[in-house]
Amino acid sequence: MNIAVIGLSHKTAPVEVREKLSIPTPKVEGAIARLTSYPHVKEVSILSTCNRLELHVILSDAENGIREVTQFLADYGNVPIEELRPHLFILVQQDAIMHLLRVSSGLDSLVLGEGQILAQVKHALAESQKHKGVGRILSRLFKDAIKTGKRVRTETSIGTGAVSVSSAAAELAQMKIPNFTDCHITIIGAGKMGRLLVKHLVSKRAVNITLLNRSIKRADELAAEYSHINIKTGTMDLMEAAVTGADVVFTCTSSEHPVLHCDNLRPCIAGRPLNLFDISVPRNVHKNVTELEGVKAYTVDDLKEVVAKNQESRRQMAQEAEGILEQELNQFLKWFGSLDTVSTISSLRTKVEAIREQELEKALSRLGTDFSEKHRSVVEALSRGIVNKILHDPMTQLRAQEDAESRKQAMETLQVLFNLEEKKAAAKR
Ligand code: NAP
Fold first, then answer.
1. How many CA atoms does the CB half-sphere of 271 hold within 13 Å?
2. How far is CA 36 from CA 16, 26, 41, 365, in A?
3. How is 242-284 classified by DSSP, letter by letter?
């Protein structure tokens, strides 16, 4: 079996390409059903975030499987495959495994060390379990990746200082508008990102905040946590009024379509400057807003400007994590390699067990009816004991072979020496 990851990320594709391939939670079930219907795709898990869309897969044949998955992406995003290819990355086996460990640890994130990715990896595993995308191998890989992510956060200083896309957005906004105290800020979206935005903006002395959300309850609950400042709340139908009064607008909803575009924004601005910071993917702010005079619009890709500033110190912290990643990778590889031996061990057991049963039967029939039930069970136990003891060493030795080549050689030797069915079947193929 082959482990592979096929996808795109903030490192390989701009937001306008990433948003076409975003697979939101309600579409995961259909995507998994389609992917697992392909002949060479055995398991799949979908990791879709603002910075990446990755399909982690187990393939019975790497070349054909990768072709099927790449075609799926082109069809899903409605992007010609030639246009998509330069943005895709494809990693296999050890590289694919290491990639997921790095992603889960926040080491492949735009904001190095950010913590949200770990929850997103957990979410990807839960969704694929729910829709029967993952089997034995991906379940184990994702669980190991989550364990690695937790270790990296607790055993190194990479997570120090609450870093997130939201904190970077608040920082970028402050680079453009240094004094938040006199600023009217509107936030559209009161989910996880909205919550973090409020936190970071308040810590940067923002006091005039309007928070809009599709459902008012979530906005009210969040505002109630900041009773010392006056956060006004409302639903999306108040957007025009809330944007009209704002100097800065942050958008962070999971809407699949832009909530702000040049038509609904034009009446709100009347020629005054307005800064829009959109951290959503797919984008909440249509790119046509920049046609309006005085409007400046920033996307998640613009956060690179902020992130570059503190990346060097974080990169040093990331070095601390390398040892943990190596350890976890080796453990996974050891387990993954041992899967190869399962069928050889099982053929060997089956063959030896068949011999034991035949020989026992012969011996018992020779002994005849005088032999009591108690004696029969002693002889049977004896035969089992001998078989188990003889098999113990070859099986242990086979499992202990850590590198793939010596494991393969050991399996072939066993198959030849014991004339195992598996060998004959392989020869016929
Ligand atoms: P979340 O916690 O699930 O919250 C989703 C928010 O979007 C809620 O406020 C929800 O309103 C609102 N919403 C959903 N569908 C909507 C629609 N059709 N129209 C208007 N509002 C809608 O999600 P999140 O993690 O905050 O992510 C929000 C956006 O930020 C996404 O585009 C995501 O890609 C991006 N982002 C997320 C992260 C991250 O680490 N999570 C990082 C960077 C960027 P209700 O409360 O009424 O449901």
1. 0
2. 27, 17, 6, 52
3. HHHT-SEEEE----SS-SB-HHHHHHHHTT--EEEEE--SS-S
50 is catalytic: yes
Name the residue among 108, 120, 121 with its Cα closest to residue 10.
108
* pLDDT at residue 427 tops 70: no
Tens-place pLDDT, residues 319-360: 889 999 999 999 999 889 888 788 888 888 999 999 999 999
Q: What is the DSSP string of 318-368?
A: HHHHHHHHHHHHHHHHHHHHHHHHHHHHHHHHHHHHHHHHHHHHHHHHHH-
Using CA positions, which residue lies closest to atom 17 of ligand 1?
Answer: 255
CA 242 – CA 220 distance, rounded (Å) = 16
What is the Rg, in whole angstroms, of the alpha carbon atoms belonging to the chain? Answer: 29
Cα-to-centroid distance, 252 and ligand 1 (Å)? 6
CB 275, CB 248: distance < 8 Å? yes
pTM of the model: 0.85
Look at residue 422 in the predicted model and tell me its pLDDT. 59
In this structure, which amino acid lies at residue 285? V
Give Cα 217 distance to the centre of its chain. Answer: 30
